Task: inverse folding
């Protein structure tokens, strides 16, 4: 019964070495001799031999309830006999049919023969999984044996039909007649014994060989980063040979790559159990235990590593752990580990280089500098290589803090110690590039290349080119990027990153079609290069190929590329293109897959702010802070949302919280300064920008906002100095140029302002806002035709931009073309019926035409849309004054003065209306207030409203 059950579970064709050993003996020796004799007797009757020993042999070796299945072999012998006979007698067709039938029966018999030995062998029952795994190999062995058996059977019958025995073919007849039984008996038993020995040796060798094969196959999969298949091969290897320590070590390494630390630890322990004296196995176990945060146990194992490998004795465990944590990307923990190593052995100077490296990567540059200074002061006779490395990191820390001059000084000292220190030359070049000293920067870069060429290190040269190209992209030196890309390609023409950089430079140069081809090349080389997919999608979107962009965004998922990364990248591309609603859909999909990603919350919140959905921003930030309570970025966005909801004081508190969480970032300080500017606290705002400059002396944005604060404080010349500084550090900061031009216009230097706008247009030829500003300056210069040309250009670029229509309408009103002026204002209102400023401007135009009632309707609408807009109430009051309705005018002027108590003309107009009603004392007070705010109004000593008040 046991045999039947097993035969149902396992296919007949399962490979069996033991079964084949029986099969070989039975087929090649038992059958050929016995059947040859049967046929000789039946054909000639000339032999009369004793078969007793054959019967005893069958009883001895094949005594099994399934042995009756073997009688099928006798049937095949008879069919083959008929086949040979058919050929001799000329019945070829009959012979062929008989051969086909015989072959099928032979096949069935052979399969059953495998079944017989499989189901009766304890060895095979034990190794059932192994033989299941080898069924593909069993095909080859099976058909080889089947072919050999068939060939020998046919040959056997040939001898039988030709009246000759197999033995007669080799020996004289007399020897066969005398020694046949004895010779056959001894010969067969001897062969059985030999074949048993050979069979077991083959089994042992077969198993040993296959374990090694599985290991090698697993290692190949590991090298391809296919860790799942690697693990499967190591598992099969362990089933073949459970005593191979290497199998379990490689298995553990693959599990490590899948972050399965617990199972990896178990495999390394098994490897150590099998081979306790291997230091590598202990080291892997120590590393894995460290990842599991079992530091005490990991330390004990590492002590064993040092015992087995004396070279490791000089390495402190915490130093070793720090190196492990760096490789894992856990830099904060690595720093803690180096600190403990230092506490255990303060004289170990070798730990400082990776320790300081970790600090600089974490952005803790001030700590890094302090630590370097301590090392330099406390340790005498430092190894020159370590000293040069420390100086290089000192320079890197200054570079990260934007202290480029200090950084250059350290790099200079580093190359004085080691003249061939190419990394220091590279960093030196980067520092010079940020100071806009491009020629000197290029010289340092070329020096680094020269050094690397001497040592023929193409890999490092290529890496240097990549870093340099990335730096040039950041500095917007796109032509230089293309030049260096060509050089890099001569070293490595198959790098996906170089093609991605190439595409970025072409993209910046607006050569979009060429850029697409480069990004496509990058992803063809490396399908996992997410940034290239993102750039490719972005470029297609710029070309208007949104359908193609959607297709590409799906393609990486089919290739099993990180789905979250490509979804997030696609979302950022859509956000940059202004398709914020679509972008949010992508960020939602990312959130569904992983709700704990900080950068996803950041991008999502940024889109909500761009859509002015500030209440949703507050909700999203609260959700974000539940996951990461110490996110300075979350508090900064919280503050931005509150600012836009006119909750300025609350917003400033959030900016303050963000700066406390991360004192090294400047963005919350910028926003804090901006909030103070909204409140009119320009001096306090300037203090924030000054603090930013202390942290980052080349921060163009800080200089720009500092200039704005000075401009609002009427310190125009100082403001111009700051705008100039901002454009020096960022020649593409168009906002700084625009406010510089605006300040020049305020100072009355209209021609200089016009020239400044012309320069800005060269930087941004498709910026409608700048054309509108330029048009306003030309209007002030009374160059109406030129001004209208700029307004038209602005409208061509942005057909839904309302300000150019308003300004165009204003010019038409000035020249007395009221009908066309009205058309422009109405067009602006058609485009944006919720713009309070447009209603106010239209109302002023109507008032100039004497259409006072219609004008008041516009001022009413403006005040509804913007209840804090003092201008609408002011012009409303002026219009009522023109209508001699002084009582109502006074009410509007008072509202306006409450909303803006610093505008002198409100008080002047109020004094005129009060005077008209005979309230002379009150009128004098308001008039005096107006003069205090603006002494130039002193010449208006008549109770009338000047014409320009309507401007």
Result:
């Amino acid at each position: 019964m046991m045999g039947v059950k097993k035969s149902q579970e396992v296919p007949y064709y399962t490979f069996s070495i033991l079964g084949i050993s029986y099969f070989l003996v039975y087929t090649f020796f038992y059958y050929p001799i016995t059947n040859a004799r049967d046929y000789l007797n039946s054909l000639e009757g000339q032999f009369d031999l004793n078969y007793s020993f054959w019967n005893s042999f069958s009883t001895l070796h094949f005594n099994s309830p399934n042995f009756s299945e073997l009688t099928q072999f006798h049937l095949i012998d008879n069919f083959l006999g008929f086949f040979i006979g058919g050929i001799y007698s000329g019945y070829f067709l009959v012979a062929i049919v008989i051969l086909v039938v015989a072959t099928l029966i032979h096949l069935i018999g052979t399969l059953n023969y495998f079944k017989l030995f499989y189901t009766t062998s304890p060895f095979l029952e034990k190794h059932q999984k192994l033989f299941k795994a080898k069924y593909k190999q069993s095909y080859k062995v099976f058909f080889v044996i089947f072919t050999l058996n068939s060939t020998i059977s046919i040959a056997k019958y040939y001898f039988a039909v030709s009246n000759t025995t197999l033995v007669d073919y080799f020996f004289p007849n007399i020897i066969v007649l005398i020694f046949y039984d004895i010779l056959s008996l001894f010969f067969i038993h001897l062969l059985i014994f030999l074949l048993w020995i050979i069979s077991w040796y083959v089994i042992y060798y077969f198993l040993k060989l296959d374990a090694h094969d599985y290991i090698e196959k697993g290692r190949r999969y590991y090298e391809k980063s296919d860790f799942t298949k690697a693990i499967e091969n190591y598992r099969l290897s362990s089933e073949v040979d459970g005593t191979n320590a290497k199998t379990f070590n490689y298995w553990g390494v693959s599990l490590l790559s899948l972050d399965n630390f617990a199972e990896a630890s178990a495999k390394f322990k098994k490897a150590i159990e099998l081979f306790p004296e291997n230091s590598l196995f202990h080291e892997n176990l120590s590393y894995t235990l460290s990842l599991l945060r079992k530091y005490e146990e990991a330390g004990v194992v590492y002590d064993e590593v040092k015992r087995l490998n004396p070279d490791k004795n000089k390495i402190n465990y915490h130093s070793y752990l720090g190196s492990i944590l760096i490789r894992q990307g856990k830099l904060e923990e690595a720093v803690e580990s180096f600190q403990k190593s230092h506490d255990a052995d303060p004289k170990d100077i070798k730990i400082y280089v990776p320790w300081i490296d970790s600090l600089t990567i974490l952005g803790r540059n001030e700590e890094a500098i302090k630590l370097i200074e301590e090392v330099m002061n406390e340790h005498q006779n430092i190894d020159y290589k370590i000293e040069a490395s420390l100086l290089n990191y000192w320079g890197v820390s200054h570079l990260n803090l934007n202290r480029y001059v200090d950084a250059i000084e350290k790099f200079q000292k580093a190359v004085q110690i080691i003249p061939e220190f190419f990394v220091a030359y590279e960093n030196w070049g980067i520092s010079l590039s940020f100071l806009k000293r491009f020629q000197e920067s290029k010289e340092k870069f070329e020096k680094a290349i020269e050094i690397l060429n001497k040592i023929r290190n193409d890999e490092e040269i290529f890496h240097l080119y990549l870093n340099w190209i990335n730096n040039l992209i950041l500095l917007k030196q796109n032509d230089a990027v293309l030049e260096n890309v060509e050089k890099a390609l001569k070293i490595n023409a198959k790098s996906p990153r170089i093609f991605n950089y190439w595409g970025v430079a072409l993209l910046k140069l607006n050569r979009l079609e060429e850029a697409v081809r480069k990004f496509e090349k990058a992803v063809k080389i490396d399908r996992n290069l997410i940034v290239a997919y993102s750039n490719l999608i972005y470029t297609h979107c710029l070309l208007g190929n949104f359908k193609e962009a959607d297709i590409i965004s799906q393609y990486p998922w089919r290739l099993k590329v990180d789905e979250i990364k490509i979804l997030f990248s696609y979302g950022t591309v859509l956000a940059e293109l202004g398709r914020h609603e679509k972008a949010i859909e992508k960020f939602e999909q990312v959130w569904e897959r992983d709700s704990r990603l900080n950068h996803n919350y950041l991008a999502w919140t940024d889109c909500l702010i761009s859509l002015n959905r500030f209440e949703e921003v507050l909700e999203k930030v609260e959700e974000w802070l539940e996951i990461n309570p110490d996110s300075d970025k979350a508090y900064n966005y919280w503050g931005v949302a509150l600012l836009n909801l006119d909750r300025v004081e609350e917003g400033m508190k959030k900016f303050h919280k963000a700066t406390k969480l991360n004192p090294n970032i400047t963005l919350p300080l910028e926003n804090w300064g901006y909030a103070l500017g909204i409140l009119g606290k320009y001096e306090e705002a300037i203090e924030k920008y000054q603090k930013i400059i202390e942290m980052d002396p080349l921060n163009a944005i800080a200089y720009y906002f500092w200039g704005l604060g000075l401009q609002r404080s009427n310190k125009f010349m100082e403001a111009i100095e700051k705008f100039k500084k901002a454009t020096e550090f960022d020649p593409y900061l168009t906002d700084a140029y625009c406010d510089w031009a605006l300040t020049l216009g305020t100072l009355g230097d209209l021609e200089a302002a016009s020239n400044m706008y012309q320069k800005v247009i060269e930087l941004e030829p498709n910026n409608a806002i700048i054309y509108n500003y330029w048009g306003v300056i030309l209007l002030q210069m009374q160059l109406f035709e030129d001004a209208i040309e700029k307004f038209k250009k602005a409208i061509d670029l942005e057909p839904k931009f309302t300000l150019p229509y308003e300004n165009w309408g204003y010019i038409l009103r000035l020249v007395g073309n009221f009908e066309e002026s009205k058309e422009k204002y109405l067009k602006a209102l058609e485009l944006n019926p919720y713009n309070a400023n447009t209603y106010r401007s239209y109302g002023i135009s109507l008032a100039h035409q004497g259409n006072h009632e219609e004008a008041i309707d516009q001022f009413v609408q403006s005040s509804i849309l913007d209840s804090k807009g003092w201008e609408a109430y002011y012009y409303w009051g002026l219009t009522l004054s023109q209508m001699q309705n002084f009582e109502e005018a006074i009410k509007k002027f008072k509202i306006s003065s409450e909303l803006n108590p610093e505008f002198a003309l409100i008080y002047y107009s109020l004094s005129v209306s009060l005077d008209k009603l005979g309230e002379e004392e009150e009128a004098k007070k308001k008039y005096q207030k107006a003069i205090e705010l603006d002494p130039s109004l002193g010449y208006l000593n008549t109770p009338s409203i000047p014409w320009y008040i309507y401007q």
The chain has a mean pLDDT of 72.
